[in-house]
Amino acid sequence: MRAGAKSVELYFERENYADYAHFSLHQSGDWHLKVNGPVAAEWRRPKKLNLARALSVAQTAAVAVVDDPANPDDNAQLVAMADDAEALDAAIFDVWIEARGAADHGGWPGKDQGTTFVGRVPLADGGAACVVARQRKMDLTSLDPPQPGPELDAVRAVAGDEPFPITAVTHDNDGTILLVDHWMVFEDADEAGAATRP
Question: Which end of the chain is least crowded, N or C, by CB within 10 Å?
Fold first, then answer.
């Protein structure tokens, strides 16, 4: 996540995928997700930005794994999953927009409900983007499968019958854009383009 230096804008890109997909939250109010060029999803900036959830990213336990402990010198902060975490448990990272003077530096959105503070990124107008984390169960069966097309064909050529990571674009209960990172696997070649969740 990075912020504009002179305008109130936020950009979200998956590491190593910046040229393929990115979110842009522009000061004009045009917020969108572009995938390989075209706009895949778009929505308007909330009218009241005193404190508004801009978007959320969900990572299932199967995706959000760390092979090695974080180096304390890197200032990395890991969000611990419950000991009984199952494949459908997910860490949700909520991005809140805080207007100038609205940030409570002794707290953060959802603190009373048990969210974990991840960090704040200052915005050009004196406000901030505050990221917090929480846990919840995810029902992956409700997600739309990826749409057939050149991008999916390219993934299939590499993945074969092995599971591959993918991000679904959907909405949370309150209408907030929700990105869900999870694993999928292609079905038999007879059903070209079809994919299922492992």
Answer: C
